[in-house]
């Protein structure tokens, strides 16, 4: 799993990456498809209470998709803080 900061982008910018390749550290990842989210997104996490509004917001703005699934085109080392480049 990777958490990527996209700065001040509007909406779910990762949907624009579908079919493209990402360079992350020494690896190359092909963005295959959107990641469908389910009811697990609303379950309480630590100090955060259960919140059904989370899934409602994902559905409203991303059509049940949040994040993307990738295939590894070229394996390589990846470390926290490595830049992510859209190729």
Order of helices and strands: EEHEE
Q: Strand tally, please?
A: 4
Q: pLDDT average, as an integer?
A: 89
Unreliable spans are none
User: How big a fraction of the residues is strand?
Assistant: 25-35%
Within the largest sheet, what's the order of strands?
Answer: 3-2-1-4
Question: What is the CA-atom radius of gyration, in angstroms?
Answer: 15 Å
User: How large is the count of helical segments?
Assistant: 1
How would the global form be characterised? globular
Which key features would you list for this structure?
single chain, 87 residues, mainly beta, 1 helix, 4 strands, 11% helix, 31% strand
Task: Describe this entry's structure for a reader.
With 87 residues, the protein is mostly beta strands. It is built from one helix and four strands, in the order ββαββ. Strands 3-2-1-4 form a four-stranded antiparallel sheet. The relative contact order is 0.31.
């Amino acid at each position: 799993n990777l958490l990527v900061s996209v700065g001040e982008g509007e909406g779910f910018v990762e949907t624009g990456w579908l079919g493209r390749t990402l360079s992350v550290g020494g690896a190359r990842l092909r963005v295959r498809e959107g990641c469908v989210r389910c009811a697990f997104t609303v379950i309480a996490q630590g100090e955060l209470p259960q919140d059904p509004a989370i899934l409602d917001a994902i559905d409203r703005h991303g059509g049940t998709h949040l994040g993307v699934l990738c295939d590894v085109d070229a394996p390589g080392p990846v470390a926290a803080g490595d830049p992510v480049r859209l190729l």
